[in-house]
Write a structure and sequence with these properties.
Blueprint: H1 2-7, H2 14-64, H3 71-78, E1 84-88, E2 102-109, E3 112-119, E4 122-125
Antiparallel strand pairs: 1-2, 2-3, 3-4
Length: 131
């Protein structure tokens, strides 16, 4: 008799709705965890890429930077979206004195930082990112 009564009703029971909500919550949590790892790896890879681009621009400065007073001004103009922290005397070098200068430029993306070493005016990017 109960079965016949339920057969004529339309809709879902409370238990069925709770099960569906629980499944959606589990899937949402799994997706959120997967996405957070992807975002972290993307920041790390962007940091390494920006460091490589910075190293390339520093190496081009001697031939392409005659319109800029210092290496720091040249990099700021060429890479406006890259945050760079400088150490050493290379940042204040002109195109004629860059070969005698050295130092470090650090790129920061989120929690990651990547270093570019400058020795005698030649820049080399490290291929690792540190937190």
């Amino acid at each position: 008799m109960f079965y016949r009564f339920r057969k004529n009703k339309k809709g879902f029971t409370l238990v069925e709705l709770i099960v569906v909500v629980a499944i959606i919550a589990i899937l949402g949590t799994a997706a959120g965890l997967a996405v957070s790892g992807v975002v972290d790896r993307a920041r790390k890879n962007t940091c390494i890429s920006d460091a490589g681009t910075l190293a390339t621009q520093i190496n081009m400065y001697e031939t392409d930077g005659e319109d800029y007073a210092t290496l720091k001004a040249y990099i700021t103009a060429k890479l406006p979206n890259v945050s760079v922290t400088w150490s050493g005397d290379a940042q204040n070098a002109s195109t004629s004195t860059i070969a005698d200068k050295g130092g470090t430029a650090t790129v920061k993306k989120g929690a990651y930082s990547c270093k570019v070493n400058i020795n005698s005016g030649v820049a080399t990017a490290e291929t690792t990112a540190t937190k």
